Every structure is written in structure tokens, then in C-alpha cells.
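User: Please fill in residues for this 174-position structure.
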């Protein structure tokens, strides 16, 4: 569920199965859609086994629009929580406990963890993820690519600092 306030009243927006929203992200920069319109202000939402968009209907009432049908069939019935949504210039990334859903050009590609994901970050045109087995890894067209020195300690977060550096947070080191 998402709680919406329109300046006057509160309203609950339902997600599939009545699940709560674990993540929200607003596209404040916009990107062209397939029909050439910008998506500025589009709201992305993730819940348990759910990912989609919040958008107004024809009368202006905010509605949940599922993106689940765009997920390849073998991954469509996931139950993990979508805990982070990352908007990059090229794509929208939904990170769940076990899967990375990459929404680009009206399609969703899935990258699966051998263990679990902690978080993801975007820096210098590259998408990074922190995986429970690989540590810090690059996401490429075929999956995850390990990074030399990326497996330090119990790495849980990577925060971009500048074009060529990041702050890595760990339970045990740094």
C-alpha cells in the first residue's frame, strides 16, 4: 500500500495482494518514452512480489500500474521485497532480495543473485551491485562481473563520491 496526500485528504493506493510498498522513486529528470513523451515526475514503486508505476488515470486519480507482465516468465512470480529503486539516465533498476529487475526500452531484464543483494549504485555510466557472494560487482549484459578488491568484509553499501571514487560501507571493515 502507498499512502497518498493530495493537499486535502489521505488515500490508500493498493498494490497486488495488499502488500506494502518497500521503495519509491520519482523520476525528476525525465526520459523519453517510446511515443516520444517525457516521463518527468513518474513515480516508481516496489513491494513484496510487485513492481510498477503510480500514475493518474483519466480523471486524475492516482493508480498503480503493474510492470510484472514485462518480467520474463521464469521470474514473474517472485515474492522478494523490492527494497531499492535506482533511476539512471538509461534505465530504472528495481533491486529485490534475490533479483535485479532492469527496466529499459519498455522491457525488463533480470539478473539473479547466487545469494542475495544488499544495494545498487550508479556511477560514471556503470551500474554496480553489492552481492552477498561476489561483493561489489559491475552489472553487464550477461550478469554480474566481479571487481578486483570488491569482496571486502561484509560490504553492504556503495555510495558514489565522485566520477572515479565511491565510499564503501561494511559491517566488518571501514
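Assistant: Residues filled in for all 174 positions:
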Amino acid at each position: 500500500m502507498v499512502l497518498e496526500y493530495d493537499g486535502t485528504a489521505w488515500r490508500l493506493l493498493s498494490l497486488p495482494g495488499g502488500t506494502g510498498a518497500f521503495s519509491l522513486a520519482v523520476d525528476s529528470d525525465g526520459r523519453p518514452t517510446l511515443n516520444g513523451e517525457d516521463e518527468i515526475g513518474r513515480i516508481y514503486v516496489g513491494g513484496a512480489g510487485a513492481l510498477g508505476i503510480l500514475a493518474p488515470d483519466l480523471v486524475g486519480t492516482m493508480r498503480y500500474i503493474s510492470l510484472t507482465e514485462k518480467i520474463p516468465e521464469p521470474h514473474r512470480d517472485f515474492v522478494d521485497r523490492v527494497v531499492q529503486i535506482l533511476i539512471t539516465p538509461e534505465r530504472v533498476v528495481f533491486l529485490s532480495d534475490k533479483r535485479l529487475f532492469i527496466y529499459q526500452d519498455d522491457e525488463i531484464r533480470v539478473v539473479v543473485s547466487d545469494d542475495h543483494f544488499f544495494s545498487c549504485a550508479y556511477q560514471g555510466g556503470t551500474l554496480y551491485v553489492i552481492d552477498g557472494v561476489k561483493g561489489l560487482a559491475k552489472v553487464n549484459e550477461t550478469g554480474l562481473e566481479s571487481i578486483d578488491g570488491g569482496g571486502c568484509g561484509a560490504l553492504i553499501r556503495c555510495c558514489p563520491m565522485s566520477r572515479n571514487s565511491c565510499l564503501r560501507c561494511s559491517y566488518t571493515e571501514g
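For context: The radius of gyration is 17 Å.
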